[in-house]
Specification:
Shape: rod-shaped
CATH class of the largest domain: Mainly Beta
CATH architecture of the largest domain: Sandwich
Helix content: under 10%
Number of domains: 5
Radius of gyration: 59 Å
Structural class: mainly beta
Number of helices: 5
CATH topology of the largest domain: Immunoglobulin-like
Largest sheet: 7 strands, antiparallel
Number of strands: 49
Strand content: over 45%
Distance between the termini: 109 Å
Length: 740
């Protein structure tokens, strides 16, 4: 018994939860490949961070269509120890709509961090689009001397982002970057860039980033003989990359003396070292090398002569980018320096350089459906996905994914002509369609792809919805487009009106039959607006048939035919008029002495005429009590004209009909007919007598035979009977006397 109860309980729960299923055909939620809130914020940062390297913090805000409903802020927490100049946090910020700096833009939290306050305007979010935006925080890390005991640089730093909408935190994220300290040394030769744009990874190489707008900030330095070697006939030879040329540099080191630039160069000699031998002071000696700097078509050379342990130098110059190449066109270019001695190569050192355009990222995804209304339970839908790269660039491999809802299956791609997307990949098991980006989508470009899908659902109901949305993964969050909605509307609608006044009629009951006469819907009742709805029907031919008229109105069973087409986008509209009803009834009375002559018929027929046109008949008899009626007759035509009705009885033999309104009286008329006379027999001719005697004898004989009976034989019989009776009586008395 206990097991039975448990099983029954489980079955009941299944039934209950089954009833809780939504009525809309909605696509199943796809679990993101990378966790993320929606709306959500994610944060990433340069890792690892080295001395004087550019640091980029990407703060990404992703939201599905219609998710951002209030203004809010994104607060970015940045450790102070890793920022060389806090003004970079404001000045180098890459930001655009819907984001802007809040007031105050930058504060300190009292725990050793800067907090950058970024606000957003929710009215600048299109509620119909999935939208992803990336704000970029750029700054340079300080020089972190790992040997400096006076400063405790961290081995790692945490960056954090908190997103609020209204006053509530709706998403948070954190990332950690390792920190690599510099270990100063005294190399024989070392070349590096100290550009204002810092260093970054370009095509896998750590490169000094050049500024096309401010070439003086593109400073490169070459250290010569910091390890205090003796080199005879020392010469520095440098080959600059193609597409660049020498330019006057900004100041790099705090050297004393004359800072005059000669042929785009400043040269400083080491004048001091700390207790560990690390260089800490310099003096400009550029003028001493005025005639020793030689410019070539590919670079330059500088003659140092014989170097001793007291001769250590820093050579500084800048490089200008020629023309206006894009970062991709420029790539990562190598700049090499060679230290020669007595004409032989002793050592080489080089540095990569490149261009980088840090852009604000903003992308959107929108979805549309060709058929906002479907008035059939079967049809084709064409969906269109529009992906827009408003700012920045969209990477190769970005995937547009469309999980199709129940009862919708992929048919074919109808438009994929942009050249940016792969052919469709359709997984029938998950009913999911996807397209991948074959190449990077440039800023300002839009990609559109359209595909056909088929909907088929025999159990679909009116007012249900086919809801479909696509998504793409943006910085770890699957963000969804707007919902492309197709409303399932009824296939047909009939409105019931009063034929006289045009007033909608409530309470009429209909059924729907298909072309074979089979009932497919029944008990459909007109509402207060007189409307009755078919619901969703398969493509085919149908008819509304009224089965019950509204109270006080005449029933009209005339079929109202209509057709349902595949892909039908609007319901069929029908109009039907009902008139107030009238009843015609009457009684049949017989005047025939209660049918004494047996001439009354078993039944009679009464015919009904509408505007003098016969429209109906009824046959009645004794079973009906000789009463008839015509019910639910329309009083008015569809044009509002009142009908004229009359009845007539079909002729009844032997009776005369008298009509009083709708009542009939039949009076028997028995005809008096004379008896038909008997036709006399033909007389025979008498025979010719042979003689007079024979005539006499024959006459006598004939006379004897022809005498009538006089009753004498009867009298004789009665007398004899009386005698016998008397004799019997006398004998009985005599016998009785003798006994006595």
């Amino acid at each position: 018994m206990k097991i039975k109860r448990i099983v029954c309980s489980l079955m009941l729960l299944v039934i209950i939860f089954g009833q809780l299923a939504p009525s809309t055909a909605l696509a199943e939620t796809i679990i993101p490949t990378v966790a993320g809130d929606d709306p959500g914020v994610t944060i990433t940062a340069t890792n690892p961070i080295t001395s004087e390297k550019n640091v980029e913090i990407d703060v990404t805000i992703a939201a599905s269509a219609g998710k951002i409903t209030e203004d809010g802020e994104v607060k970015v927490t940045i450790p102070k120890d890793i920022v060389k100049n806090k003004n970079d946090l404001i000045n180098n910020l890459v930001i655009d709509d819907p984001f802007y700096l809040a007031d105050p833009a930058l504060i300190e939290d009292g725990e050793g961090n800067y907090v950058l306050n970024i606000a957003y305007d929710h009215t600048k979010y299109d509620p119909n689009n999935a939208q992803g935006n990336t704000v970029k925080v750029l700054f340079k890390a300080p020089y972190m001397n790992g040997n400096d005991s006076n400063v405790n640089y961290p081995d790692s730093v945490d960056f954090k982002a908190d997103m609020t909408m209204g006053s509530e935190i709706i998403s948070s994220d954190k990332t950690t970057s390792d920190v690599i300290h510099s270990v100063p040394g005294n190399p024989l030769l070392s070349k590096f860039g100290i550009t204002s744009a810092g260093r970054d990874d370009i095509y896998g190489q750590e490169a000094s980033i050049l500024s096309k707008e401010d070439p003086s900030s593109n400073v490169f330095a070459i250290i010569v003989n910091y390890n205090q070697k003796n080199i005879s006939n020392a010469q520095l030879v440098d080959t600059i990359p193609e597409g660049t040329e020498l330019y006057d540099p900004n100041t790099y080191i705090p050297a004393t003396g004359d800072s005059t630039i000669i042929d785009h160069f400043r040269i400083a000699k080491v004048t001091g070292r700390d207790a560990t031998g690390i260089v800490n002071s310099w003096e400009y000696v550029t003028t001493d090398f005025a005639d020793k700097i030689h410019l070539t078509s590919t670079g330059f050379s500088i003659d140092f002569g014989d170097l001793t342990s007291e001769d250590s130098y820093v050579v500084m110059y800048a490089q200008k980018v020629v023309g206006d190449p894009t970062p991709d066109e420029f790539g990562a270019r190598y700049n090499q320096a060679v230290l020669m001695g007595d004409g032989d190569e002793i050592i080489t050192s080089g540095a990569y350089m490149g261009l980088k355009e840090v852009m604000y990222d903003s992308v959107t995804l929108n979805k549309q459906v060709s058929q906002p209304v479907l008035a059939s339970n079967s049809g084709d839908l064409v969906y269109t996905l529009t992906f827009a790269n408003k700012k920045g660039a969209t990477a190769v491999g970005t995937k547009l994914v469309d999980p199709l809802p129940s009862y919708v299956t992929y048919v074919e791609t109808t438009d994929n002509s942009s050249g940016y997307l792969t052919d469709a990949t359709y997984d029938s098991e998950t009913n999911t369609l996807s397209y991948d980006f074959l190449k990077e989508l440039p800023e300002g470009e839009t990609v559109t792809v359209a595909f056909k899908a088929h909907y088929e659902n025999d159990s679909a109901q009116s007012d249900q919805k086919i809801e479909n949305k696509a998504y793409f993964n943006y910085s770890g969050t699957n963000i969804y487009s707007n919902i492309a909605t197709t409303l399932l509307d009824g296939s047909a609608e009939l409105i019931k009106l009063d034929s006289k006044t045009g007033t909608p009629l409530e309470g009429a009951i209909f059924k729907i039959v298909d072309e074979s006469g089979q009932t497919v819907e029944e008990n459909l009742v007109s509402d207060s607006e007189g409307k009755v709805y078919s619901g969703l029907l398969k493509p085919g031919k149908y008819a509304f048939i009224e089965t019950q008229a509204p109270k006080g109105y005449a029933l009209d069973t005339t079929p109202n035919s209509f057709s349902v087409e595949s892909n039908q986008s609007t319901k069929v509209n029908l109009t039907m008029y009902n008139s107030e009803s009238v009843e015609i009834a009457g009684t049949k009375t017989w005047v025939d002495n209660e049918n004494s002559q047996k001439l009354r018929p078993d039944t009679i027929t009464v015919n009904l005429y509408q505007n003098n046109i016969k429209i109906n008949s009824v046959t009645i008899g004794e079973n009906e009590g000789w009463k008839y009626s015509f019910d639910s007759l329309p009083k008015y035509s569809n044009d509002g004209e009142e009908y004229s009705y009359r009845v007539e009885e079909e002729k009844v033999e032997n009776y005369k009909t008298e009509q009083d309104g709708y009542n009939f009286t039949n009076v028997l008329e028995v005809p008096t007919e004379p008896e038909t006379p008997t036709e006399p027999e033909t007389p025979t001719e008498p025979e010719t007598p042979d003689s007079e005697e024979n005539v006499t004898n024959n006459s006598k004989t004939q006379n004897e035979k022809s005498l009538p009976s006089t009753g004498s034989k009867s009298a004789l019989f009665l007398g004899f009977a009386g005698f016998l009776i008397l004799l019997c009586v006398m004998l009985i008395r005599l016998k009785t006397k003798n006994k006595n």
